[in-house]
Amino acid sequence: MDKYLAGWHNENEQWRKARKKEWKLVEPVVDCYSPRDKEERAKLKDFFLTGNLDFNNYNGFRIEFLKEDDQEVKSNFDCALDGIHGRVFLLMLFSPIQTEEMYRYIIEQVKKRKDEIWQIELQQARECYLECAGRYHSPFTPRIKDELPLAGREKLLFKFLHGEALENDIQFELSKDKKRYVQNIANDFLVNSFDLLISPYPSPKHYYNGYSSYLRSIASYIRTADVIEIHNPDLALTASIYCFRDVLENKEQYLPIKIKVAEDFTEFVETIEDYLPERVTTIFAKAHKEWDSGQGKEEWQKLKQLVWADWSSQKWVNKRDFDKFGKPKNGDLQ
Q1: For residues 67 and 73, is the Cβ–Cβ distance under 8 A?
Q2: Confidence band for 123, pLDDT divided at 50, 70 and 90
Q3: Is the Cβ–Cβ distance between 326 and 198 less than 8 Å?
Q4: Is residue 143 pLDDT above 60, yes or no?
Q5: Of 63, 161, 227, 288, whose CB has the highest number of CB atoms within 10 Å?
Q6: pTM, whole model, 2 decimals?
Q7: What angle do CA 158, 273, 161 make, to 5 degrees?
Q8: DSSP helix/strand/coil, 256
Q9: What is the largest CA-CA distance in the chain?
Q10: Number of helices and strands (H, E) in the chain?
Q11: Which residues are 322's β-sheet partners?
């Protein structure tokens, strides 16, 4: 039997029960990065629970048909999730055996296909990983949704989708594509950092299981582009500096997760400073200077009210529990 598919032990009742519980962690990841209709989600769930190859692909073909009709499909492994967007990402995410050896095996098997197919599938996997990690820092993520962002698999996923093991494979062929890719994730990081820091109910799990990997991914690629263009308005960049300075200078008022994000953001900006356009570094320098003079601190009090007004528009936030700055009225840390 194929090494990957041998990980399923459907004859073991205890294993089946544990697998069903695990699906509750994996399911939100499956839903996170791409819309899935009911039929496809049912196929994905069935494959996760049973390893069943029949009807688990996007066209619902059986194994025998796929092998006969598709010249690229040669083995049972190739039939697994054939044609489904983000296949490599899902194969790693779904694997019952979460080890480096198994991830290497998945990569080796997929690489046996034509080079252009491998590149497309790996690019999709990379995008899925980043989108999953990044979306968990969105203001639209309810605070009650406290699942592990990548179902506890983030370390291995990072290593094989954004780490040294595939450093040569994951580089985009065209410099313009590479540059745009880096710029997009850099911009996302700035926005997500700010959102996570001003969120009234940030979860430590969001940071340690998603945000930290997301940060490492960006830092890994930031050096592959000559210049990182930041598209945020000047005010947003200035407000970010004010926000992080406020947290770092008043740690006793803030939650540990917010302090950690502020520290990492500061370190990140220092790391990529040489890759930022002069316009952006000038904005950052000006914001720090104004903060040190006291002008920035006064301006931040006004901006803070605007930030909270935006956050309090979320349906799940009870505005009565916070003051006009978003500080909990019951005395809890921000």
Answers
A1: yes
A2: confident
A3: yes
A4: no
A5: 161
A6: 0.57
A7: 10
A8: helix
A9: 73
A10: 15, 0
A11: 328
- Cα angle 106-107-111, degrees, rounded to a multiple of 5: 120
Segment holding 220, helix H or strand E: helix 212-222
Quote the tokens at residue 98: 């979460």
Token digits of residue 201 = 């109910």
Burial 264-292 (b: 16+ CB within 10 A, else e): bbeebbeebeebbeeebbebbeebeebbe
Tell me the C-alpha distance between 199 and 308, whole Å.
9
Checking if the pLDDT of 12 tops 90, the result is yes
Look at the block and give the residue holding tokens 């490492």. Answer: 216
Which residues, in sequence order, are bridge partners of residue 328? Answer: 322
Three-state secondary structure call for residue 132: helix
Nearest Cα to 194, choosing from 229, 245, 142?
Answer: 245
Tell the residue number behind the tokens 């770092």, with chain if given. 248
The pair phi, psi for residue 28, each rounded to 5°, is: -65, -25
What is the reported pLDDT for 191? 75
Tokens 């890719």 belong to 181
